[in-house]
Design goal:
This protein is α+β, with helices and mostly antiparallel strands. The protein is globular. Helix 2 packs antiparallel against helix 3. It has a single domain, classed as Creatine Kinase, Chain A, domain 2 (2-Layer Sandwich), CATH 3.30.590.10. It has a four-stranded mixed beta sheet, covered by helices on one side. Strands 2-3 form a two-stranded antiparallel sheet.
């Protein structure tokens, strides 16, 4: 479930710049910087089930890498080439799935992006791209330079535990809400971890 995002101020798309990469403005890049910087914590809300990570695996054009790109489908953020007009310029955040609560998912992405704007987090300076090459043609050593997003609900919850200050700005979230979310999702993680999977029965029942 991809989230296409752009911000408007007084009817003007502040993400548009005619000369920018993918027609994106510096404000848009700062927003992208914040979203990728806080990406691990964001996934705790946008990918809130253990099943959310079944599709986030390497080698299948899954959006598992914290970088932005015009055309690379393994990027967490893709800039649509066709969205090149003042009112359409935008990007899409590609990791989320439909198990998320839409209101929470939108809120955490917006908070991460606004934090990036406030702090002027330039994704180019932070090592988040842009990368428009086929990274699967890179050597393993080259790919190590790319930050990976969480590959499990537990990793996302751990990221949220360490990084949630940006969500408290303006009282949008509070510590109690975040602690409760971490507790509930941790319980779900361990409930699945501590039970046999049906495929394990197929693999080992007659061992």
């Amino acid at each position: 479930m991809h989230f296409h995002q752009h911000l408007f101020k007084r009817g003007e798309n502040v993400f548009y710049c005619a000369d920018g990469y993918g027609k994106l403005s510096q404000v848009a890049l700062w927003y992208i910087g914040g979203l990728l910087h806080h990406g691990g914590a964001v996934l705790a809300f946008t990918n809130p089930s253990t099943n959310s990570y079944r599709r986030l695996v390497p080698g299948f054009e899954a959006p598992i890498n914290a970088f932005f790109s015009l055309g690379n489908r393994s990027a967490a953020i893709r800039v649509p080439k066709y969205a090149d007009q003042p009112d359409t310029a935008r990007f899409e955040f590609r990791p989320p799935d439909a198990s998320c609560n839409i209101y929470l998912a939108l809120a955490v992405q917006l908070m991460a992006g606004l934090d990036g704007i406030r702090k002027r987090m330039d994704p180019r300076e932070m090592g988040f791209g842009p990368i428009d090459e086929n990274i699967f043609a890179w050597t393993p050593e080259q790919r190590k330079a790319i930050k990976a997003l969480p590959s499990s609900l537990r990793q996302a919850i751990e990221a949220l535990e360490k990084d949630h200050e940006f969500l408290l700005c303006g009282g949008v979230f509070d510590e109690g809400q975040i602690s409760e979310w971490i507790m509930v999702k941790s319980d779900e993680h361990y409930a699945v971890l501590n039970r046999p999977h049906p495929f394990e029965m197929e693999l080992y029942f007659d061992a």
